[in-house]
Amino acid sequence: MDLSEVNALITGGSSGIGKATAQAIIEGGGKAVIAARNTDRLETAAEQIGATAVPCDVQKESEVIDLVEKTVRELDDYNVLINNAGYGEFSKLVNLPATEMENQLKTNTIGAMMVARESAKHFIKKDYGNIINVSSSAGKKGFEGGTAYVASKFAMSGMTECWRAELRPHNIRVMQINPSEVQTRFSENAGQGQRAFNETKLIADDIAQTICSMLSLADRGFITETSVWATNPK
């Protein structure tokens, strides 16, 4: 599809990969609704890039249902979901509270499922749509301290495969992108502090460009999954 035909809902859209992707779509002639929990940051981002802001906590089913309904009303031809909302907190197994595990699964896994479920209902009616799940290199390989986050991202990979099998007969492309470390607010939000910018590591625009390339492929084909790594991080 051409980017000018994209009418996208992007969760986690107030900063980082979500905001950069929305901006790239809008600059390509498309439209975007961005969603996030922090209303002030969300509205500021929307004003900066020309998107429509719809506050939403993807852990809350009623808010997710309302989000997709508002998106359908706002975008006359809603046809792309970028499932990007997520966060990480890291603890070794012996120190991992069940509540921390539960909260990450609620946002990264169950939240993604609910937004996809409501979007898929609309896409099936139209017999067309696109879903891109933003996972992580952590969804391909585990690491020390990553139990909760890694589990949530491995689960996303499994869900992506299930949705692809279910939705292909309805001309819905289900794709996944696995970025390695991207310099966003992720580290800060994870309680690991702000890190100095490193020009050898990935930035949000790199992932936004890749997502737009995946969408831009002619509708007769789709890229099931791709990973993006820094070439030579130092």
TrEMBL record:
SUPFAM superfamilies: NAD(P)-binding Rossmann-fold domains (SSF51735). It comes from the Bacteria. One of its GO terms (cellular component) is membrane. InterPro entries: NAD(P)-bd_dom_sf (IPR036291), Sc_DH/Rdtase_CS (IPR020904), SDR_fam (IPR002347). The keyword Oxidoreductase applies. Belongs to the short-chain dehydrogenases/reductases (SDR) family. This is 3-oxoacyl-[acyl-carrier protein] reductase. The lineage of its organism: Bacteria, Pseudomonadati, Balneolota, Balneolia, Balneolales.
